[in-house]
């Protein structure tokens, strides 16, 4: 029994350590991708939010007019019906972004001569709309973001470091011109290629421009293939249900993913149980580079979750074994506890009875008067003594006066007697 308890204790300590270590590793993986942590950046008032991604078939006909107007109105109505309102009129309860990807041809003309210096370079291009840079905060090496919602001044683009080096041999090229499918565009900034996404990012370079501009360059035909939403989620599944009901796309042409839930224990456990089905995809949807990276990272997290799950199962089994052993030996345990408690009580009683009686407390001595009070008492006594002396002196003086008066009267009487005798 004692050996079993020692072994169980060692196993329990090892299991707890393993659970802690792999929990830290999983938390590190969950925080690795900025594109999966929009809720942390958007929710500042403590409201519970969810991040939902919809990957849409290009044949579904989902475009910017529906995303910016119809869907936005439907989401506002759904939140109002659920009594979820912003703190003030200017505040927004949710944010969204959308994108579509295609290839473009790049060329560069010398500003001095106007001649084409480099041409025929193809690059993957993302047309973005909404608050895309909130969902995907690109790391800029120079320049700044452009306003993806501006459909008039939409000739600004962001190029990555690969294209900047290929055309200009430098990253500090904000404000330079670049021809995209024959259209003159201005470089707003240069972004770094995030190594976390490098596996699916592509090697040929990438451009980011507004969806409206890419739609113009593509002959006004550009279906949105990715819609992302960060919205309040007071109860689990609320945000996912709202988007599913208002997206306006058939279920066979869209795949919904709750990004904010993908690294939780329940989601990872579910992923393990359906791991063999991951290779079969029946929907005609395409995934952007950040989603492919997130899927790969989630699969890795699911495998690492096994090393967290096994020690947890060991802990549960050890606890169950201890409960069974305690139940089987309940009579012995009860007797042990009773005997031990009785011994403790007897020891306490013995110490209490053998304790010597307490000595009586000495009588409290009167407190000496405070200095000021003592002075007042002494002054009063002095005044009383002075008054008494004055009274005594007055009485003595009166007595002496009376004595003198009586003596004078007696002398006058003797003189009168003598005169009478002579006569």
Plain-language structure description:
The protein has 423 residues and is an alpha+beta fold. The chain is built from twelve helices and ten strands. It has a six-stranded mixed beta barrel with strand order 2-3-8-5-7-6. The chain is elongated and about 110 Å long. Mean pLDDT is 83; it is low at 390-423.
Residues in β-strands, percent: 15-25%
Poorly predicted ranges: 390-423
Largest sheet, described in full? 6 strands, mixed, barrel
Helix content: 40-55%
- Structural class determined from secondary elements: alpha+beta
Could you spell the SSE succession in H and E letters?
HHEHEEHEEHEEHEHEHEHHHH
Number of strands: 10
Instruction: Give me the oligomer status.
Output: single chain
Cα(first) to Cα(last) distance is 150 Å
Shape: elongated
Rg over CA atoms: 49 Å
| Overall residue-averaged pLDDT value | 83
Count up the helices: 12
SSE arrangement:
Blueprint: H1 2-30, H2 38-42, E1 49-56, H3 64-81, E2 95-109, E3 116-130, H4 132-135, E4 140-143, E5 156-160, H5 161-168, E6 177-180, E7 183-191, H6 198-201, E8 206-210, H7 211-217, E9 226-232, H8 238-246, E10 254-258, H9 265-273, H10 289-328, H11 330-353, H12 371-422
Parallel strand pairs: 3-8, 5-7
Antiparallel strand pairs: 1-9, 1-10, 2-3, 2-6, 2-9, 4-7, 5-8, 6-7
Helix pairs in contact: 1-10, 9-10
Name its key features:
alpha+beta; 12 helices; single chain; disordered C terminus; 423 residues; 6-stranded mixed β-barrel
């Amino acid at each position: 029994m004692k050996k079993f308890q020692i072994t169980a204790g060692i196993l329990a300590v090892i299991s707890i350590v393993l659970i802690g270590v792999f929990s830290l590793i999983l938390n590190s993986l969950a925080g690795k991708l900025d594109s999966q942590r929009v809720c942390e950046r958007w929710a500042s008032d403590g409201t519970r939010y969810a991040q939902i991604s919809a990957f849409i078939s290009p044949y579904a006909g989902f475009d910017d007019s529906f995303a910016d107007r119809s869907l936005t109105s439907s989401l506002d109505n759904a939140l109002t019906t659920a009594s979820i309102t912003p703190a003030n009129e200017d505040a927004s309860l949710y944010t969204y972004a959308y994108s579509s990807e295609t290839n473009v041809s790049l060329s560069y003309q010398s500003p001095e001569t106007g001649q084409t210096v480099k041409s025929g370079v193809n690059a993957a291009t993302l047309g973005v709309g909404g608050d895309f840079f909130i969902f995907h905060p690109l790391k800029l090496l120079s320049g700044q973001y452009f306003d993806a919602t501006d459909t008039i001044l939409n000739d600004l683009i962001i190029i990555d470091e690969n294209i900047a080096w290929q055309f200009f041999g430098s990253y500090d090229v904000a404000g330079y011109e670049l021809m995209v499918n024959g259209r003159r565009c201005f470089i707003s900034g240069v972004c770094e290629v995030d190594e976390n996404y490098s596996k699916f990012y592509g090697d040929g370079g990438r451009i980011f421009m507004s969806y409206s501009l890419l739609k113009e360059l593509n002959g006004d035909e550009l279906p949105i293939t990715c819609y992302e939403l960060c919205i309040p989620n007071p109860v689990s599944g609320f945000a996912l249900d709202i988007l599913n009901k208002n997206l306006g796309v058939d279920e066979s042409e869209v795949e919904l993913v709750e990004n904010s839930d993908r690294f939780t224990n329940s989601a990872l456990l579910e992923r393990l149980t359906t791991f063999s089905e991951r290779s079969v995809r029946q929907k005609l949807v395409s995934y952007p580079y950040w989603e492919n990276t997130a899927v790969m990272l989630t699969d890795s997290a699911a495998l690492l979750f096994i090393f967290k799950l096994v020690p947890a199962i060991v802990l549960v089994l050890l606890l169950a074994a201890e409960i069974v052993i305690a139940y089987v030996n309940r009579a012995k345990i009860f007797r042990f506890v009773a005997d031990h408690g009785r011994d403790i009580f007897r020891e306490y009683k013995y110490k209490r009875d053998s304790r010597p009686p307490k000595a009586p407390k000495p009588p409290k001595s009167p407190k000496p008067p405070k200095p000021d009070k003592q002075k007042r008492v002494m002054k009063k006594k002095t005044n009383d003594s002075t008054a008494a002396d004055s009274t005594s002196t007055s009485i003595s003086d009166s007595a002496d006066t009376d004595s003198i008066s009586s003596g004078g009267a007696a002398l006058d009487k003797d003189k009168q007697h003598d005169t009478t005798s002579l006569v």
